[in-house]
Write a structure and sequence with these properties.
The complex is a heterodimer of chains A (353) and B (362).
Chain A (H helix, E strand, L loop, with lengths): L22 H5 L2 E6 L5 H13 L4 E6 L5 H5 L10 E5 L5 E6 L2 H12 L5 H7 L2 H8 L1 H17 L11 E5 L3 H17 L4 H13 L4 E7 L3 H16 L4 E9 L6 H8 L5 H10 L6 H29 L5 E5 L7 H13 L10
Parallel strand pairs in A: 1-5, 1-6, 2-4, 2-5, 6-7, 7-8
Antiparallel strand pairs in A: 3-4
Helix pairs in contact in A: 2-14, 4-7, 6-7, 7-8, 7-9, 8-9, 8-10, 11-13
Chain B lengths: L5 H6 L5 E5 L6 H14 L3 E6 L4 H6 L10 E3 L6 E6 L2 H12 L2 H9 L1 H9 L3 H16 L4 E4 L9 H13 L2 H7 L10 H15 L1 H31 L5 E7 L3 H16 L4 E9 L11 H11 L4 H30 L5 E5 L8 H6 L3
Parallel strand pairs in B: 1-5, 1-6, 2-4, 2-5, 6-7, 7-8
Antiparallel strand pairs in B: 3-4
Helix pairs in contact in B: 4-7, 7-11, 9-11, 13-14
Classes of the chains: A alpha/beta (353), B alpha/beta (362).
The complex binds adenosine-5'-triphosphate (ATP) (2 copies) and magnesium ion (MG) (2 copies).
Amino acid sequence: MSTAEPAPAAPAAAESVVPGWAAASAQARLHVVTGKGGTGKTTVAAALALTLAAGNRRVLLIEVEERQGIARLFDLPPLPYAETRIAVAPDGGEVRALAVDVEAALLEYFQLFYNLGLAGRALKRMGAVEFATTLAPGLRDVLLTGKAKETVTRRAAGGEPIYDAVVMDGPPTGRIVTFLNVTVAMADLAQRGPIRSQAEGVATLLHSPSTAVHLVTHLEDMPVTETLEAIAELREVGLPVGSIIVNAVTDPLLPADALDAAAGGDLDAAAVADGLAAAGLTVDQAGLKTLVEQATDHAARVTREYELESELATTGLPMLNLPRLVDGVDLGGLYELSEMLTDQGVTLDRERP
Amino acid sequence: MTELSLRELVADQATTVVVTCGSGGVGKTTTAAAMAVAAADAGRKVAVLTIDPARRLAQSLGLGELDNTPRRVELDAPGELWAMMLDTRRTFDEMVLAHSSKERAEQIFANPFYRTIATSFSGTQEYMAMEKLGTLSATGDYELIVVDTPPSRSALDFLDAPQRLSSFLDGRMIRLLVAPGRGVMKLVGAGLTLFTKAIRTVIGGQMLTDATQFVRLFEDLFGGFRERAEATYQLLREPGTRFIVVATPEGESIREASYFADRLRAEHMPLAGLVMNRTHPLPASLSSLTVAAVDAGISAIAETDPLTAGVLAVHGKLLAINAEERRMLTRVTRAHAGLPIRQIPALPTDVHDVADLRAISL
Ligand SMILES: Nc1ncnc2c1ncn2[C@@H]1O[C@H](COP(=O)(O)OP(=O)(O)OP(=O)(O)O)[C@@H](O)[C@H]1O
Ligand SMILES: Nc1ncnc2c1ncn2[C@@H]1O[C@H](COP(=O)(O)OP(=O)(O)OP(=O)(O)O)[C@@H](O)[C@H]1O
Ligand SMILES: [Mg+2]
Ligand SMILES: [Mg+2]
């Protein structure tokens, strides 16, 4: 269903908002997407992967929360623990996906250093992995970040990276810093041996310009607060922050000059009544009152969103905007969101490291 | 579509326990609290067990003090509202105390491994919510207990958690890691030894020592725990118990609610119905403003009267949202014919206090 819309109002906070995609992000090879639960991490990570794949590139989308969110989003059966091609970018690029299975990753990891033989399967049956990861929650994170690093640094025979970029649908803001910094902690813990050097390698990658952590948020109080907190924490431990991606933004539908009055409850009802008559619409008093209420709620919401957007802008970070799609996000919607990211400058730099 | 009346459900003397469940952030806590207020308004003595309520709601219900028992909420109502917020760690401690001597309990509390389990094992919160429900129910103090469930990534977690925690605590794995190469595990041989060595490297030797001690301390308690969990799960199948599945009109959340409804049926747990929270119903006063009328109206005045055009566009957006919500609802009713459903309109702001809770249409 489409509704004709008047020209949208210009965002009031526009002056203070820097463009959306920093040069550093265009250079980064590992893009970690975090945000408060339910704000659109999986959706945005997928759209970002599609965008970065444009121009005949190969991008890997990694899921680390074992929820098969990517499969659901792309309307596919559950993904195996193997890199699987799931989408093509409009001009020939390719997105592959990997749903990391922690158990499998743990066995793979140990297989790297010790020869497990048949023990692997038996341990799996016994729930050894869940046990170990519960005892040492950091173990899970080490495995996941380790796997991400492996995909980022994997090279073809000719020496060029297999993937132009890796996008991770990451853990929520509350856990992101522990998650990304776990290898630093782990390197401190394990005094020597393969685990230590592995942890050091991952920590180096994550703290380097090859990584960008992007934060998805709604323009609502709690998500914005969490985003600001997460940014401060990420900066404190020296993890490179990329863009803030403001998702599900309300389209401003009222003219900019009427917004403040409307939000304050001073919408000119008489003028609207005249306008409706001029448009050939008959609405009774109760109907008019409802229309005015709806417009007032809308205006209040939009002005609040502007305020929150300005708060986010104080971080000085680049900001990207994605609107709320009324029909939810299906595959078509995903490409639509991806295109909007492209239009806001999201891209990979031509030169490869 | 069968209408579900939550107000009638909680006013009914036959209803003694109501459990709200659903995926993260859909409104489980809000619905639970609103139902409890409605029960008190209907003259009943009700306790609501909330889990991690939003800060402002917690404040207005006086949930600041964490003594892990219900507190009376001042309310202008014929009944009584008692509210509490689950303290997982404390509930676990209480359970340990109830099953062992004081000295033994002290030793357990001091064990770092216990602290890990009691605070961060992924099923503990779910398990303790049920444990607390069992305790509250056993007091016989309340005519109705409304229980919220933890924000789990999936609604099903809460049914599976006790099993998970039980098999975790029964000590098999710990013994394996501490003393490999015995019993069945001999079969897998050298690879295993390497694996346990690897795990030890990562987990750290101290943690394993603590774990071993914990298993020894916990051994006798374990049977008691299991029985208790089973008794609580029996309570969930009793005739006075009702489950409410909460969802928002979004694909993901509805899918989750759907799984949950199927699962409850399979487990013979009584599902009262589905709450579709945060919907956008259309006011009857504007029934003449169809999508076509709105579109035509906007085209007619977009140039001359941007304000009214904007007002119409806002309404057009609501029409679109409402159409999408109805589509979602049809999907649910088709998959679960006869499932009673309650639609709760989205309030313009978050739900912060008793007045807001009363504004929720139950
Ligand atoms: N721009 C958008 N417009 C409309 N709906 C959206 C938009 N972005 C996300 N959604 C919807 O919001 C819901 C949550 O999105 P998503 O699953 O991506 O969030 P998430 O942050 O990954 O959630 P979780 O914390 O549960 O992993 C989904 O139903 C998704 O389709
Ligand atoms: N009908 C409603 N109208 C407006 N806001 C609502 C409505 N229902 C819930 N909310 C708001 O939505 C947010 C989430 O609600 P709530 O905390 O009840 O969800 P929950 O399912 O318990 O979440 P969690 O899974 O995190 O425990 C809260 O801020 C609450 O005030
Ligand atoms: Mg997700
Ligand atoms: Mg809750």
